[in-house]
Amino acid sequence: MRATMTSLQVREPLTSLLVICVIMWTLTSCTARGPICMQCHNVTNNSNCSGITMCPEGEGCYAREIVRVTGSVVVERGCLSHKDCSILQSTAVGIGKRDATGCYRCCTRDLCNEHICDLGQISTPPPNSFLTTATSGNVTQNLRSCFRCSDATKVTDCQVSLACAAGQECYTTRATLGTTTHYSMGCESRQACTHYTGVASNQAPFCKRCCDADGCNVDLCGLHLLPEIVTKPFNRTLEVDDVTRLRCEADQSSNATLTWTFESATGTSVFPKPVAFGPRNTTAFFQITHNHFGKWTCIATNSFGSTSASAFIKHLSSS
């Protein structure tokens, strides 16, 4: 079999490289191999990924889009074992202290990684911005406010509210490495978020999720950071001069503060007297007067938000 230079003079350099690789494989057809893949690292433009490589047996092509902590995006492509590809593609979350994976895909055909995980445009919020709306032309867009942290080992460190840029959602990343779990929260482009939806379960070692509501990333990847009321007040039907109490307790790990509010049947929110509160406001004690009938609400608040539970005190004659 002869191959002349004339036969390799094709228009596209990529095609030439492919022809060379195919000829090399034909000449050594007894040698098992993997697919021919595009290969590049830290490329900021899709057209700059012009490398090509022949993978060994047991490997396939992959492409990964990496979102830097600065908001810039780069891509890498190459060969990876089928086992590693299966693990990383199923989690779609890269392991790194600061960088995140916007996309991770594997494939097995020649040059199949040329156009997967193509670079997207990731916009970053302006520093120290707490605006909640943005105006584009005559259209006002609502901006998401998300909790933020970077590579925190204590989820309670993720407490700062961040105003996202237009076109962004809230995200949470949770990665367990050995005995330590790392958390990151913040804003992510909707384009990148499409890669994370439904990829890994909340119980997996790696999880990344996005959501589109203010502060919603405190409840992603199996996290429950809002305080949970474990003892709730319950409805009572009483007479005037009866002595009663309403109990309310939040889970201790939430580090929540308890407060009470009152609303009478006429709509007034003025606290009736007398009312006494136990330690940390966990219990409200009072002797019933006509002013005590109404809706009593216990509110548990921590740095991530509030949860409430209500009970009604009704007069016996109204039951």
Compact overview of the structure:
Pfam families: Ig_3, UPAR_LY6. By secondary structure, the chain is mainly beta.
Task: Give your account of this protein's structure.
Helix content is about 10%, strand content about 40%. By secondary structure, the chain is mostly beta strands. It folds into three domains: about 35-105; about 145-220, Ribbon (CD59); about 230-315, Immunoglobulins (Immunoglobulin-like). The strands form six sheets. The chain has a five-stranded antiparallel β-sheet. Strand 20 (about 295-300) and strand 21 (about 305-315) form a beta hairpin. The radius of gyration is 29 Å and the shape is elongated. Mean pLDDT is about 75; it is low at about 1-30, about 95 and about 120-140. Keywords: Disulfide bond, Signal. It comes from Mizuhopecten yessoensis. This is Ig-like domain-containing protein.
